[in-house]
Amino acid sequence: MQETVFASIYKEIFPFWEAISDADREYICQNSYHIAYPKGKNIHNGSECSGVIFVRSGSLRLYMMSDEGKDITLYRLHKGDLCMLSASCVLETITFEVLVDAELDSQCCVVDGPAFAAVSKRNPDIRIFALETALSRFSDVMWVMQQILFMSMDKRLAIFLSDESARTGSDTISLTHGQIARYIGSAREVVSRMLKYFAGEGIVEVSRGGVTILDKKRLRELAL
Amino acid sequence: MQETVFASIYKEIFPFWEAISDADREYICQNSYHIAYPKGKNIHNGSECSGVIFVRSGSLRLYMMSDEGKDITLYRLHKGDLCMLSASCVLETITFEVLVDAELDSQCCVVDGPAFAAVSKRNPDIRIFALETALSRFSDVMWVMQQILFMSMDKRLAIFLSDESARTGSDTISLTHGQIARYIGSAREVVSRMLKYFAGEGIVEVSRGGVTILDKKRLRELAL
Fold first, then answer.
1. Strand runs labelled E in chain A
2. Which residues in chain B are closer than 8 Å to A124, comparing Cβ atoms?
3. CB–CB of B130/B136 below 8 Å?
């Protein structure tokens, strides 16, 4: 009973689930499917309506790409997260193009885009949920933008980590986030969040003992 | 009859106006006010809930600012536009801070933020309208981000000069290099250097009064 499986998942993740009709619940389940994306697979490309993707395991990466092939990570989705920007037919006001890749082997379940759009048209609660989910990512994207544009915080942190590693002759920088923040003239919260961003990119690993550099080449590129 | 004036404005701009109760319409009008902002006035700063601002004349600029005072224009609002990001209490998922200045003398009418939030809680149509209005700006901001992060500076400057010339209907852009830099999210030195390069190529002429476009065709080619 595939549909029972979907219903039990959706009951957990969709706050509107109990408020909509039996027929709409059934319709959503009938237009859902399970899918396994292998690591590295491109799942969504640009403005097509790939559907609403729920991550059951693994990790997806949302990013933008320039004509020259340069890309910038906007944010990642992990277990329990929902990807709404991949359902452009639900969100007519979104006109920019994002790409989504599976960053790890990922198990997902997907509600078909046009089907989700159809039920959201007749249920304001679903529409509000979809809009709020999409809008909440706006803040994440603005954060990335602010860091990269204003502070060159990625650059400053990369320079500091490179220099410190060269100075001590070790790949591990044994400093707290607060100490690093003081060195580069920033706030602890900002450093922690940027280190998390670096870790997500596979550039460093953050542990109790400090920060370990995993990818010197990319760190050096960021520091340029 | 102030309230009649507001009602006639809101009838035009709020698609939900006829669908809500008389009491809610009255409540919105009672919590509205007219205001004239002089050119240069800061209207909204950060995360306070300034309200929903409707531009009746003039122009508002939304921007982000770094700790060092560098700013980046996200978008502008003109006659007939509505500013929703200034009503952070309506949009709980928005956690970043924007600033809004009057760029020209501007006549606006404002619905008090908490009042708008209150009616939007009991009217899904209002909530959907607020979310869609905010989300539609997400695309504008992503466009700016793409311009700044991905595009080369010559292209950015060429686009700005072309757009500004088209907007004002004049070949001369009467702005300082510092002002242009702020508009395109760059540094004054970078803009000056690029303008010198453009001047060397015979594309523009730089004078005390500003920048005059000499070769529109090449400028347009650069902007492609």
1. 32-37, 42-46, 52-57, 59-65, 71-78, 82-83, 98-102, 106-111, 172-173, 204-207, 210-213
2. 124-125, 127-128
3. no
Q: Is the pTM of this model over 0.90?
A: no
Chain B residue with minimum CA distance to A131: B131
- Output the pLDDT for position A223: 79
For residue A89, give both structure tokens: 């037919």
Q: What is the pLDDT of residue A72?
A: 77
Residues in chain A within 8 Å Cβ distance of B149: 66, 72, 145, 148-149
User: Phi first, then psi: what are they for A9, rounded to 5°?
Assistant: -70, -50
Q: Answer yes or no: do B138 and A134 touch at CB < 8 A.
A: yes
- The answer, yes or no, to whether residue A102 has pLDDT greater than 70, is yes
Rounded CA gap, B72 and B99, in Å?
10
DSSP state for residue A161 in the 8-state scheme = H
Secondary structure of residue B162 in the 3-state scheme = helix
CB within 8 Å: B93 and A125: no
Helix, strand, coil % over all residues of chain A, rounded to 5: 50, 25, 25
CA distance B177 to B58: 24
Note the ipTM here: 0.71
Read off the tokens for B37: 């902002």
| A94 vs B64, B138, B146: nearest CB | B138
Lowest mean pLDDT of A59-68, A132-141, B103-112, name the range.
A59-68
